[in-house]
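Q: Here's a chain of 153 amino acids. Please give me its 3D structure as tokens.
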Amino acid sequence: MATRKLVVSITAIGLAVAATPFILYGWLQFQTWYFHQERRLLREMRAAQSQSTNDSALARDVLLRVVPLGTDREEASAILRSEGFGCQSIAKPITETRLRLRSADSTRVRDSWIDCQALAPNVLGNKQWIVDLEFDPDGHLNDVGVAMWNIFL
């Protein structure tokens, strides 16, 4: 009788240990899904761009549907902040795009660019989103660069 209880206990413990990675993976999937359900822009950009890149035309297109060219500086920044991005003025764009190439020859002031970044959960790490917004002298959105880096834990 004691042997049977021991076998049942060992089997139960073995099944629990074997199930743990699957339960953890499912929980991480759920957290990632839930985070993106509340952030439409990040969800759509994530669906368009899954691989790391310093210049995502696909994510840029998604972003421009929500923040079209010509949007004023404060509105563009407010939209991105509402999606969980932190934004600040920068002297030069971070993303590897035509923005950086243009900035090398530019005499624009610091307020020409805003860099917005968000860290979104991913199943085995995070996605670092970098959005550089370029504004014309009147403060209207002139161009956008989007980079996404997969950060694995």
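Q: Can you summarize the key feature?
A: The chain has five helices and four strands.
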